[in-house]
Amino acid sequence: xxxxxxxxxxxxxxxxxxxxxxxxxxxxxxxxxxxxxxxxxxxxxxxxxxxxxxxxxxxxxxxxxxxxxxxxxxxxxxxxxxxxxxxxxxxxxxxxxxxxxxxxxxxxxxxxxxxxxxxxxxxxxxxxxxxxxxxxxxxxxxxxxxxxxxxxxxxxxxxxxxxxxxxxxxxxxxxxxxxxxxxxxxxxxxxxxxxxxxxxxxxxxxxxxxxxxxxxxxxxxxxxxxxxxxxxxxxxxxxxxxxxxxxxxxxxxxxxxxxxxxxxxxxxxxxxxxxxxxxxxxxxxxxxxxxxxxxxxxxxxxxxxxxxxxxxxxxxxxxxxx
Length: 322
Hints:
- The protein has twelve helices and ten strands.
- 36% of the residues are buried.
- It has helices spanning 20-28, 49-59, 79-88, 108-118, 148-152, 158-164, 194-203, 225-230, 233-250, 259-286, 290-300, 306-320, and strands at 7-13, 36-42, 64-68, 93-98, 102-103, 124-132, 138-142, 155-156, 175-177, 208-219.
- By secondary structure, it is of the alpha/beta class.
- Helix 6 runs parallel beside helix 10, helix 9 runs antiparallel to helix 10 and helix 10 (259-286) packs across helix 12.
- The protein folds into two domains: 7-226, Alpha-Beta Complex (Spore Coat Polysaccharide Biosynthesis Protein SpsA, Chain A); 231-320.
């Protein structure tokens, strides 16, 4: 039986014909002293993506394996593809890469694996990510720019990620220890932000190292899931329920030894929940129902400390008119 590779690179793709070759090449160009495999899961693309990845698999049969889904499944787009790919990974470590992103440094895998091999306490490692346009032009932005914790620290914990209520790293930068948990929980199949939830799950088992060098690129384009769905009314509603669920699972107020600490950690999650409630109301207003939007906000303000967020929004708007 062949010895499993040290690293499994999981690439998930859907209609990425303009980008998938760049993503695969950025992995094949990695300079490592260990073996790695590439598993590409295609979520029934309708463009030339499947043709392209088949050609790569024929050229690199010992490195690349394909999982070609026979249809688009119901549920959150891409979720089955994502989970199936991770379950198929044989390596000690799993590195993630979305089919429209790419790695910018040929030492990315080597640097991350060297760190993990020498630091058993860490469950995962990630790096900063530069933001680029559809044609690879840098926007000047970096993924870590909005996160205060990453401005002062080079690692983050389970409590940090819960307190942030948002991803502290971008998916295509992440490398983690395989088989950290046996299987994904049932709730993971129904949430929107699989990247945030995965980091929440992993960080329960140890801290995550963060390299402030940009070894990866996150591509913004009009065909991405974020551009097509993230600002929709449906997604806003799902995000509210998702964050409420994670708060309930990991920050119950009733814990005897740390109720006040959990309330503090919930503060930012409550702000995120309120933000998505506000976004949901905005979508209702854009549909031509301002009174329905007002009624929703009034009701929504009575839970999750949302009234605090709404008052702050009102104060900000008043100051703009002064």
